[in-house]
Amino acid sequence: MELILQNIAKHIQLNEAESHAFMELLERRTLKPKQFLLVEGNICRYTTFVVSGCLKGFTVDKNGFEHILNFAPPGWWIADMYSLYTQQPGTLNIQAPGVTEVLQLSKINQEKLYHDIPKFERFFRILTENSLVAYQQRVLDSLSLSAEERYQNFCKKYPSLVSTLPQKEIASYIGVTPEFFSKMRSRLLKGK
């Protein structure tokens, strides 16, 4: 629980009563490896904070290929933003690659927080802005950077995941085949 309070403290300050009220609204879940938190076509009803493990957000194209949009390691938040805010069926799958512990805040409880502790509106606005900036940068990187540069950006953004994720998931995130990624990575390691 300390990790989520540290995350919040980066943007807003809570007193003890506010911290307690917030914590009372959270639901703790433990996901097994490969367990889905959200499946494409369902409505996203939670904003999720990762305590341990990792979550990945991805889509699957008509050929069955997985396209990973983002990862959420410990200390990160994740949701299908479109679905959460519109309450329409989502386009994102969110899955735990391994055992993952999360804290979830329902949309209903998030609205309650906005009413009871208005400074949470500022907190979630900052999260939403940061998410928008990250997605825009990701699109620009996909359009303008080489695979090696995208991999280097991945390593900077997710340093704790570089050695823990399967190579095929990193390849999917940077938009290359696992075979290309393996050759590229070998070449980069030899160049060091």
From TrEMBL:
Gene3D superfamilies: Jelly Rolls. CDD domains: CAP_ED (cd00038). InterPro entries: cNMP-bd_dom, cNMP-bd_dom_sf, RmlC-like_jellyroll. Residues 29-109 form the Cyclic nucleotide-binding domain. This is Transcriptional regulator, Crp/Fnr family.
